[in-house]
């Protein structure tokens, strides 16, 4: 009897744990706040979709997305605005918060629109970061150089896209 009861409880628990993915039903809105130390890009502006790079993987956000908190990795955040325009912004790091009211906050350490990135300057920064990584003399310097190198690699990749 107890074994059968456990089986019923497990089945009920599994049904409760099923994750539902967000759809974008018409009429639903998603307000985006996107700020960095150097600029505020969006201030509660309604958008259709946001694609973000995170350390747990890149993902897209639509209205009614499951509430989420994630750490941004260096890469490009893509915002699809309501008029169909795509805005691509490079972020060095930061956080993304998706709330149950369909509001989204992107807080970046540093962020720049892709069109403002100078490819040759990015390549130069990558060369410098590689040199600093190779010449790092202790673990702390090596770790700091590795972070700078990762960001520089992603900037070059973004500038080349």
Automatic annotation (TrEMBL):
Subcellular location(s) of the protein: Mitochondrion inner membrane
Domain F1F0-ATP synthase delta subunit C-terminal: 118-158
Any one cellular-component term (Gene Ontology): proton-transporting ATP synthase complex
Pfam families noted in UniProt: ATP-synt_DE_N, ATPD_C_metazoa
Sequence ranges assigned to domain ATP synthase F1 complex delta/epsilon subunit N-terminal in this UniProt record: 32-111
GO terms of molecular function: proton-transporting ATP synthase activity, rotational mechanism
Xref: Gene3D superfamilies: ATP synthase delta/epsilon subunit, C-terminal domain (1.20.5.440), F0F1 ATP synthase delta/epsilon subunit, N-terminal (2.60.15.10)
Keywords: ATP synthesis, CF(1), Coiled coil, Hydrogen ion transport, Ion transport, Membrane, Mitochondrion, Mitochondrion inner membrane, Transit peptide, Transport
Segments forming a coiled coil: 119-146
Sequence similarity: Belongs to the ATPase epsilon chain family.
This protein's name: F-ATPase delta subunit
Protein species of origin: Bombyx mandarina (Wild silk moth)
Gene transcribed to yield this protein: LOC114252204
């Amino acid at each position: 009897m107890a074994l059968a009861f456990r089986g019923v409880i497990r089945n009920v628990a599994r049904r409760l744990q099923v994750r539902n993915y967000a759809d974008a039903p018409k009429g639903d809105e998603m307000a985006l706040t996107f700020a960095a130390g150097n600029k505020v890009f969006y201030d509660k502006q309604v958008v259709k979709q946001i694609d973000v790079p995170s350390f747990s993987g890149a993902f897209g956000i639509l209205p009614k997305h499951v509430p989420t908190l994630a750490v941004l990795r260096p890469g490009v955040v893509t915002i699809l605005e309501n008029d169909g325009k795509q805005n691509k912004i490079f972020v060095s790091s930061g956080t993304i918060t998706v709330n149950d009211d369909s509001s989204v906050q992107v807080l970046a350490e540093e962020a720049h629109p892709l069109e403002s990135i100078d490819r040759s300057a990015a390549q130069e920064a990558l060369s410098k970061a590689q040199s600093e990584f190779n010449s790092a003399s202790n673990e702390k310097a090596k770790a700091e150089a590795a972070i700078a190198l990762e960001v520089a690699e992603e900037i070059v990749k973004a500038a080349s896209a």
